[in-house]
């Protein structure tokens, strides 16, 4: 493609007039304590050992119920901080906001989920607080974190609120990552808003795999379509339930650029307008709420990013109390991410194609000035998490 | 919103330098014979009578298994051609390409589906051939049609090929509408390509309704999200199966602007690139195939249309044999539609908001010249169906 003719050297941040940080807000970890939990299990999610084709013992991760095949190889890049730092260095990432990978604590009974959430949050605080200083950004560490909540079936509200309080005491953790199964809990939203925690909403379950037909396409359909569908459904349900009306100061960050929500948002608005019972519950046109959200820039294409920026920019024009299109606001609510350690290179190469694709996408949005790119690459993240540099 | 300050008068086609037709390629009918079939049924899809709140007898349509509530009101606008013509006149639509509404013949046993497909195709030919001349477009009728195929479970290939042959003999039917359950049938694709029929791919089933949680949102989630998800999965499976590689001359028209496919297409390409078994089956990057498809312009928003146009425009740049981004090509593969008689006005108004939204969206794509708008509003449809005006 034509954009390929510009090398990553040309596109690199070094062309920015001032040195701006590159901050990765979508990067995962299975903390050692969590990996141990998975090793002790006999059904997915689990980590198991087998002998590979060369006779070597290897560990593999079965992440989904009914996952086809033998799972994926899993190793130190999932849990060792040095691997994270090496990856960051390889891609000139200055700061990472690390989050636990799916499926978090979803499979645990309430009491165990509560205990493990607190332990893992403490582990992550240590993982972050003992990380190196960010090179060139005095006062900042190279790693911060998203904590966990025990949002499992049967959990008590007070148990979740307990852990929110705990997270608030951990100085390097100023957000939480949640799946889509715990989103219906209203008092939790209230507490999260009050605690001013950034909420990273991330998929795990996709949609019913029967929709995907026979299983000859590996993980492509559940990952490429199921994941973003799940995120889209979750945030749409939050909008329809009025959560964004009642908690307007929630700071929700959507994985994978909001899935399909941007492209389906005008259709959503139209369907709502044709259903008076739903319509009268909401304070605004559905498109308005997209301007209140944050989107990672993990969409792998410049046209996708530009479009997400456009739907954020138009959001205020869909306020029922009046507002204007603002083309500049889009790039203030989108944030670079890598999805590390998933989507690794197929061959032992220095750079990860998935990361390069996302960086190139940011550099190739034609309507963005250098200042907009600097926002998306890192400054937005520092502002969102109230870090100064 | 600011666009609302421009009236539809200002935006109307009369500002075009030459009179270009407005052609609706997404407009449905339940032919009288089909309505009778639904009336004879005791489970969905069915039409039943009940006494409404005012003591009047009314007919209602239950279209989905397990549909919440009592279905939707159904009446002459679903089957009477005069109602279609009245609607067209109200919105200045010159020509309609009418298709049967979902769920087509999906619920029928093979023999009945085969017979009814042929009968309905003949009915539709008569519906079209006896329609008025298109006003101002000599030689053209006001209505053409998409035929049906008996793509039901257990049908023989020869039975489907039979009906393709029949459709080919009907002069006012030069396309077919299909759901997503019959898309795996390879000899059928070969026959359709050979017959040069336009294939309108339309959803009905959505995704598993359990994904949508409790049922307090009416039809909003299945319609706004489930429908486009289903279309996205169907066309993605066709791409992954290599159908678009083996039948490069297929003319596939996607309902609802391709659902979520455009926004997920770079993610799809990335997921494929990370799965060598799937990747090596395909001749091109996934994004290439979007340039081989046609998209209706039923997305209700200008930013959505512009984005779909962009992903069509970039497609050639993702050919593995080399190609360039072409910003002008997008508007040659997008086609105005209304989804009539669905999404009717809530109040007895002259104009349908759903139609106005789609027209205004076309008029508000900032990067489109008047010639591009004329293409999307009607000229593309005439070219696609080889009609001269």
Structure description:
Two copies of one chain form a homodimer. Chain A has 389 residues and is an alpha/beta fold. The first copy, chain A, has one domain (78-95, 107-384): Metal-dependent hydrolases (TIM Barrel). Chain A is built from 15 helices and eleven strands. An eight-stranded parallel sheet of chain A has the order 1-5-6-7-8-9-10-11. A three-stranded antiparallel sheet of chain A has the order 2-3-4. In chain A, a hairpin with a 5-residue loop joins strand 2 (46-51) and strand 3. In chain A, helix 5 runs parallel beside helix 6 (157-168) and helix 6 runs parallel beside helix 7. The longest helix of chain A has 21 residues, at 220-240. The radius of gyration of chain A is 20 Å and the shape is globular. Chain A starts with 7 loop residues before the first helix and ends in a 5-residue tail after the last helix. Mean pLDDT of chain A is 92; it is low at 1-7 and 13-17.
């Amino acid at each position: 493609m034509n954009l390929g003719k510009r090398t990553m050297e040309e596109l690199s941040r070094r062309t920015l007039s001032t040195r701006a940080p590159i901050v990765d807000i979508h990067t995962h970890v299975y903390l050692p304590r969590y990996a141990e939990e998975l090793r002790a299990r006999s059904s997915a999610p689990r980590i198991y050992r087998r002998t590979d084709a060369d006779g070597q013992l290897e560990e593999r991760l079965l992440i989904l119920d009914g996952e086809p095949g033998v799972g994926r190889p899993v190793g130190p890049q999932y849990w060792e901080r040095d691997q994270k730092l090496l990856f960051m260095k390889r891609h000139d990432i200055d700061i990472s906001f690390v989050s636990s990978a799916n499926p978090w604590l979803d499979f645990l009974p309430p009491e165990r989920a509560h205990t493990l959430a607190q332990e893992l949050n403490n582990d992550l605080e240590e993982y972050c607080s003992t990380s190196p200083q960010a090179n060139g950004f005095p006062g900042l560490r190279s790693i911060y974190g998203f904590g966990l909540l025990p949002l499992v079936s049967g959990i008590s509200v007070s148990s979740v609120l307990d852990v929110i309080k705990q997270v608030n005491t951990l100085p390097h953790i100023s957000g939480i990552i949640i799946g889509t199964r715990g989103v219906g809990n209203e008092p939790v939203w209230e507490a999260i808003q009050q605690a001013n925690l950034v909420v990273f909403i991330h998929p795990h379950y996709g949609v019913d795999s029967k929709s995907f037909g026979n299983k000859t396409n590996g993980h492509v359909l559940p990952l490429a379509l199921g994941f973003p569908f799940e995120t889209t459904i979750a945030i749409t349900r939050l909008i329809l339930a009025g959560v964004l009306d009642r908690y307007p100061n929630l700071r929700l960050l959507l994985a994978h650029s909001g899935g399909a929500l941007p492209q389906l948002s005008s259709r959503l608005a139209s369907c709502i307008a044709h259903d008076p019972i739903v319509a009268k519950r909401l304070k605004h046109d559905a498109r308005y709420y997209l301007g209140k959200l944050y989107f990672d820039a993990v969409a792998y294409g410049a046209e996708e990013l530009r479009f997400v920026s456009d739907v954020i920019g138009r959001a205020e024009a869909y306020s029922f109390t009046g507002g204007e299109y603002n083309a500049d606001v889009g790039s203030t609510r989108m944030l670079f991410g890598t999805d590390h350690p998933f989507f690794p290179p197929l061959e032992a190469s220095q750079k990860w194609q998935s990361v390069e694709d996302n960086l190139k996408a940011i550099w190739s949005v034609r309507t963005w000035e250098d200042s907009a790119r600097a926002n998306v690459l890192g400054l937005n993240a520092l502002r969102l998490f109230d870090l100064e540099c």
